[in-house]
Amino acid sequence: MLRRLLFVAAALLTTGEASASSVLLISLDGLRSADVAQAKARGMKLPALTALAAEGASAEGVIGVLPTLTYPSHTTLVTGVSPAKHGVSNNLTFDPDAKNQTGWYWYASDVRVPTLWAAAHAKGLTTANVHWPVTVGAPGIDANLPQIWRTGTADDPKLLAALATPGLLPELEKAVGTSYAQGIDESVEGDANRVRFAAALIAARKPAFTTVYLAGIDHEEHRSGPGSAAANAAIEQTDKLVGQLVAAARKAMPDVTIVLVSDHGFQPIATDINLFKPFLDAGLITLGADGKPTAWEAMPWLAGGTAAVRLARPDDAALVAKVAGVLAKTAADSAYHIAAVMDRSAVAKAGGASEASFFVALQPGYETGRDPAAPIVRPAAYKGMHGYVPSDPAMRSTLIVAGPGIRHGGLGVVDMRAIAPSIARVLGVTLPDAEVKPVF
């Protein structure tokens, strides 16, 4: 019996059954790589973020995934793999018949590989989530307030209550003393509400691994442009929210490691480009009187500064050749401001959507327009955009880490895929599908 007990104890020690530290993973959507390091030069006061950076380690920048959009990036941040492998290749699902009512990749069933939540849960660690993308029905999250919305009406809170961990939302609303913010609310004020709920959740459950997503910076950078007074004010307001989250986590779990990330950078923009037009002109898309497609052979899948091109018959060599010709002609027309066209092999090498036969990358200052009936060029509704190729330095995102055992200093330029396995190492768990090695 004694021999058996010693064997079990040794096994627990060698398999990392007990984690060295709990982890709070905070994402600030759209926080550019230099916003914290150059805060003073950019006219911002960010005491919480600069304190974290001074206390721990930070990256010079994080190179993201193709495309540099919120949902593909956030799925990489919790899996350690590229969109080609994890399966979340855009924010919006591919909807060539325009039937899905602008549906996003809300559902975790679309993720093809294990996540940090599942890995932690499998080791007996408690997990929690507030508003992280692609978490509806996510396995391994013990206390889950997933991100989802539909109409922004009174039915949306009912939907969230039905999809959240049973009983969690009313429990937290009672503790916080207010209703939970609508999923469609991407303002800093909506973030402030979610931070109150996250703090209450952390205090009550003391999870070993918690994820919290805040959208207000991205929302303002789209609306007002990166570096604008309004966007900088949103960053300063969000800094206060980070301070509240960090204080709540450290009070509940003194050994907590704080991992602060963002998903992408930002480009200022002024112009929409209608990438549907060449496909319409070539007869690859047919529109009905209502402006919706009635037939299609090839379709752009818009992603801000890029667009994947999907084919109805991707193995049809004649169709592939026809689309390649259309794209070559379009890229040669300076009116379209195309920086590059990637074929299937180049997309695969970059880890982009496995469903894409081509990828079109626009020049800085231009985004993919959403109206197939628009002219080639027209003024953009937004003033800031992302989704460009990850090699664009303006798309680099943020990584700051502080906690027990985290060595102070710079991490250099980090591959986004390295963040999840690094968190796994802190938690004492593994992500066997991770594509690169940990960096902290």
UniProtKB/TrEMBL annotation:
InterPro entries xrefs: Alkaline_phosphatase_core_sf, Phosphodiest/P_Trfase
Keywords: Signal
Matches recorded under SUPFAM superfamilies: Alkaline phosphatase-like
Keyword rRNA-binding included in the entry's annotation: no
Signal peptide: 1-20
Keyword Nucleotidyltransferase part of the UniProt annotation: no
Protein name per its UniProtKB record: Alkaline phosphatase family protein
